[in-house]
Design a protein that fits this description.
heterodimer, A: alpha/beta, Aconitase, domain 3, Aconitase, Domain 2, 5-stranded parallel beta sheet, 16 helices, 32% helix, globular, B: 167 residues, alpha/beta, 7 helices
Amino acid sequence: MGSTITEKILARAAGVAEAHAGDIIEARLDLVLANDVTAPLGIQEFEKAGFTKVFDPAKIALVPDHFTPNKDIKAAGQAKIMREFARRHGIVNYFEVGRVGIEHVLLPDLGMVAPGDVVIGADSHTCTYGAVAAFSTGVGSTDFAAAMAWGKVWLRVPESIRFVYSGRTQRWVTGKDLMLHTIGLIGVDGALYQAMELTGEAIENLPIDERFTMCNMAIEAGGKSGIVGFDEKTTRYLQSRPEGSRARVAGQVFASDPEAEYAQVIEIDAAAVPLTVSKPHLPSYSAAAADLGDTTIDQVVIGSCTNGRLEDLRQAASILRGRKVHPDVRCIILPGTQQVCLDAASDGTMQALIEAGCAFSTPTCGPCLGGHMGVLAEGERAVATTNRNFVGRMGHTGGEVYLAGPYVAAATAVSGHIATPEEVLGAKGGPR
Amino acid sequence: MIFEGTVHKYGRDVDTDVIIPARYLNTHDHAELAKHAMEDIDADFVNRVQQGDIIVAAENFGCGSSREHAPVAIKASGISVVVAASFARIFYRNAINTGLPIVVCPAAIAEAATGDTMKVDLAAGTVENVTKGTNYAAEAFPPFMQELIDRGGLMEYVKAQLAVDQS
């Protein structure tokens, strides 16, 4: 009987020869994380249970990214609970404003996630790290608290769905478009409790930043995790990281066996996937961007844990450079980390975006979850490169969010209505 | 444990953003969170809900964000149990971990309506719609989940496992 990559990673972490879908295991954890929304509740549970020691201060990351820089007095109090806990327990991977980034961009970029690692985080988008062939999944605050004490987590080994993206994507069609299209196909619970294993020529050709984007949104299909196999792109990414993740690679690189069992195999012709937008109020309401040109827009948000990496901002800048944001649109850039800001500053990306009339934010989750830094009023409509378009997600329940990739978001910012790069640049599409 | 209460009925894909909007996540105080339970799907819910009432929903209840504030807010609002056709996985774990009783019972959902009286017997695994006079068998918890519950929840389980690991 063969094993999937997910089964192999979990078997190793559980210290057993083999683990298969449906097995309950106790997995050793390589990284446990939480943010300023989920950590305070977890810290309360940790202390209420009478725990006094964390299992390994070096394997815990506390990332105040949601409501920071502190948006109001109550949020400042939550951030303070987390800061003081980090100091008390010697948690070195606590990141203060000025050094902090959006958790799922920051932690892998700092080399804190290696292939074969098992990671849990009190944030649903923890599934992002599957992009570097790790198993990672979101949990709540109590699971986070228990993991801080125990260093392990109980997990049911998930069935996997193998997605095969054949062919090459069209020009400007990114990992975001592939994922919105996929969620449209299978629905918001189409991968419930399952691992989404992303394979095929289009995935092999996908830059690592776009693999992060795809794995990040596995949760929007109900998935437990998303994962892409290890290849030379993973190697190159890890080589450009600080020491941490590289040191752990040996013995942790796994691949699915050809005879591994899958709950389903879904084949998608990547060449036929259009520039895709998900309409309100579910990520599964996907449609071709070209069909939504009548939709006028008040705000464009480019960034977040889904699309806040350097390549995302470069894609946006390639459309906005030398053009202006439409007079009726406010365009907000949410870079993933301070390093992304520095890189965007040094290669001219930031200047192009600011000259076009975009507001360049500090790294924060901010408006993605209706926190601050760009919430919507009643009746307002946004295009966002974020991950959710639920009722009230970005502010007022009478607001609307359309999800898209950076190219469509940038073209929309210029046009004032949902638009494709083709429309703005006057250039033709074709293979990427 | 047997719960009997009035049904508040919702559709599928009720996400944690509408259960407890992010604008209230600047606190983890249970009573404070309860004041805003279900606010963005049913603004009047907190005014109508009575201690012991039951939420009934279709598939994928609790999808989206991992915020444990969602089951906390529901429980603190007075809801005794949530009956759904299915639950999103993080919400499922969070409900067990925070002691919010949940029951998977796809057959009971369609005919249940807001205002019905429902009776849920956790031990027997039954859901009775008293108003409609119908009975359904709920899905049993997977054996491991039942063990976790029987052992007093996740924290008690972890304390016991830590003792084993350290011996």
